[in-house]
């Protein structure tokens, strides 16, 4: 019997260019975008969460989230990487089932749908109550997809949040090398089943992550 094969995608720096949202954070925190970008890069290089960069500028940064969000105004068409919609369509045409499950506020679900990004399954960490890299996140992914781990590819830009924990949970991890995390981090464990530079390349090479027959 043939098996369904899923491609499950992260959001930040996989589907969405986060330049604008970090620019909004810089504005709210009262520093140049370059200052925040440099600090963020330092945190990434040290293996620390990006929120440490915000906290270094203002220990009370969390109280400013609503102000940042008002300035940001949610995901907009210009935030979507240009390969996203064509890639999602092509994956479906090639028989893959597509999901988006990521660390994001619950409101991003509707924002993505409004931009035409509406996969078969979509869920945000705030809505499901668990976030990466917690192993329970990937258990929840499999539960939402009603799938076995070997039948799911998880695509993300971060080794620490996406590649290593997805592979540890038995999923096939694909590392998309765009965004600051992907350019600073290294996959020393060899956890990634596949590395790509774009979703266009993912479509072209997705079969490499599923080398064995479907039956």
The total strand number stands at 6
Radius of gyration: 17 Å
The outline comes out as globular
**Low-confidence segments:** none
Strand content: 5-15%
**End-to-end distance:** 5 Å
* Relative helix content: 40-55%
The SS-based structural class is alpha/beta
> Going across the major beta sheet, what is the strand order?
3-2-1-4-5-6
> How many helices does DSSP assign?
11
For the sheet with most strands, the description reads: 6 strands, parallel
Would you tell me the overall average pLDDT?
A: 94
Run of helices and strands: EHHHHHEHEHHEHEHEH
Your description of this structure?
By secondary structure, the chain is an alpha/beta fold. It has eleven helices and six strands. Strands 3-2-1-4-5-6 form a six-stranded parallel sheet, with helices on both faces. Helix 2 (33-45) packs across helix 3.
């Amino acid at each position: 019997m043939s098996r369904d094969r899923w491609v499950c995608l992260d959001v930040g720096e996989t589907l969405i260019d986060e330049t604008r949202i970090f620019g909004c954070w810089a504005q709210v925190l009262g520093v140049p975008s370059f200052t925040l970008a440099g600090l963020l890069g330092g945190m990434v290089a040290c293996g620390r969460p990006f929120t440490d960069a915000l906290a270094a500028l203002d220990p009370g940064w969390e109280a400013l989230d609503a102000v940042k969000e008002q300035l940001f105004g949610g995901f907009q068409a210009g935030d979507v990487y240009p390969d996203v919609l064509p890639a999602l369509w092509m994956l479906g045409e090639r028989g893959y089932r597509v999901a988006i499950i990521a660390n994001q506020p619950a409101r991003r679900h509707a924002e993505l749908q409004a931009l035409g990004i509406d996969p078969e399954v979509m869920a945000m960490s705030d809505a499901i109550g668990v976030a990466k890299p917690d192993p329970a996140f990937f258990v929840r992914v499999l539960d939402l997809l009603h799938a076995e781990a070997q039948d799911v590819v998880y695509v993300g830009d971060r080794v620490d949040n996406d590649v290593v924990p997805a592979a540890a949970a038995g999923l096939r991890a694909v590392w998309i090398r765009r965004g600051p995390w992907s350019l600073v981090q290294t996959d020393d464990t060899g956890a990634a089943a596949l590395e790509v530079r774009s979703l266009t390349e993912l479509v072209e090479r997705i079969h490499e992550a599923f080398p064995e027959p479907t039956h």
